[in-house]
Design brief:
With 222 residues, this protein is mainly alpha-helical. It is 78% helix and 0% strand.
């Protein structure tokens, strides 16, 4: 009925009497996820896994880990779920994202590659896959994907920043500049590569300003 807080109260009473791992732990974890409390959902879902390590339990546990930004654990849970339920098309996308967030590019790359056909028009996917290739194989390897991500969604700031950095690393400062200028307006981390691009183009005063702004924002308020 969608009354998740009330269901938790009843489940808590039941689990005090029946604490052994069982379906009530799974339902408790689900209720906490529905309430937007993924970190609290981890414990009951880990207990539910001891009861039954099914793909259903593992997916929800992966969701809880992901919501709590515990990326490696989320990746491991989704990976196990994918082995148990290879027909579920949602799992590999979540798996690739979590390995990318965990900076496990060695694990992320083959998953991205395996599902590229289904997500070729998704800017977030293209950005994450392209960034994975840049970080694991160098800027040239991921450039085309980052360019496509920026074309699909020009407002996707992380993709524009990653594209700018890749172009800069390929000694294409002029091409990198518009991407880095846009990114720097939203993300202070882009100011440093923007400064490098200005300097490479001989625009030393603008380079110095961007570097100064970067250091000021990095230091934060005093």
């Amino acid at each position: 009925a969608g009354r998740h807080q009330e269901s938790l109260a009843e489940l808590s009473k039941f689990l005090q009497a029946q604490p052994a791992p069982g379906p009530a732990h799974f339902v408790s974890g689900l209720a906490l996820l529905k309430l937007g409390r993924p970190c609290e959902a981890i414990a009951p879902l880990e207990t539910a896994r001891k009861w039954k390590a099914s793909s259903e339990v593992l997916i929800e546990l992966g969701d809880a880990y992901q919501g709590c930004r515990r990326w490696e654990l989320a990746g491991a849970a989704y990976e196990q779920a994918a082995r148990l339920n290879p027909a579920d098309k949602r799992i590999p996308r979540q798996l690739a994202h979590c390995w990318w967030m965990a900076r496990r590019y060695d694990k992320a790359k083959p998953v991205f590659e395996s599902i590229q056909g289904a997500h070729g028009g998704d800017a977030e996917f293209l950005f994450e896959y392209g960034d994975t290739l840049v970080r694991s194989e160098g800027p040239e390897a991921g450039l085309a994907l980052l360019e496509k991500a920026a074309a699909v969604d020009p407002k996707l700031v992380p993709a524009r920043a990653a594209l700018g950095r890749a172009l800069l690393d390929l000694d294409r400062a002029g091409d990198a500049l518009p991407h880095l200028e846009l990114a720097a307006a939203h993300d202070a981390a882009a100011l440093l590569p923007l400064s490098r691009a200005y300097r490479a183009l001989g625009r030393t005063e603008e380079a110095a300003r961007a570097e100064k702004e970067y250091k000021t924002k990095l230091a934060g308020p005093r």
